[in-house]
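User: PEP-CTERM protein-sorting domain-containing protein. Structure?
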Amino acid sequence: MTRNYSAPACARAVALPASLIVGLLVAPPDCGIASAAFVDLTTAGSSGSIVAAEFDTNIVQATGTGGFDTFVQQSPQGNGTISRAYNTTVNNVLDNKSADNFNYSIELGDAPVVNRAGVPSLKFSLDLNESIGGGAEFISLDEVQIFVGGTPNSNVDTFTLGILDHDGTLVYQLDAGGDDWVAMNANLNSGSGAGDVDMYLPLSLFSGFAASDVVTLYSQFGLQGVDPAGFTGDFGASGGFEEWGLAGVPEPSTARLVLSVLALAVFRRRAG
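Assistant: Predicted structure:
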């Protein structure tokens, strides 16, 4: 379920020759004024959008620790119910976990490129590990910030006007148009062996960047707490950790080729 509000334009669309990318129909994302105050993903098969990002619960591939390429794990400290973290091998940065094989820098070319309703998009998958029962299976995704370039495996833990002080380029923010959030249900799939939510970002958001550029994904969970407006349940973080990963990853050359062609198209358009 999607609730709409006015939001600023959010992406630059770049048209690529269809002959260069088989199976991907390039079209600009609809990101001018229609977006969402929040997206309800608490029921199976639900979906919605916030600014340029599409979210859905249509997971067809098992994920979880060991099942897909996890690049960041996070959970609240102590008895807290809110977690904030981003992918880095540096320990004790905000609420990230300490295992380097599940918390590390990734490159733009590592993310799978998929055809999302005719729009080439990067896919990031989210696995939830919440307590089940009594309404505790719910959790809110309250912020996502994605940076390209800058320092890999950073240790920055400060913010300016709500934006992580990372030295990369901010290409997407969930809260860019307001205090937006995604309502999620960890009980739609079982345990940490199955994913819960996919997030799709139009490839055009990343135009002009190289496949080798670093990607840093910061996210915050649990801010909505107990019984937020329109819902009954505990949307704070409880149970185990939440983890972002790359599921359904294509051959490395595929993603990097698409990004290389996109970068070339941008260069030619600017040169012309």
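The longest helix spans residues 252-271. The CA atoms of residues 4 and 38 lie 8 Å apart.
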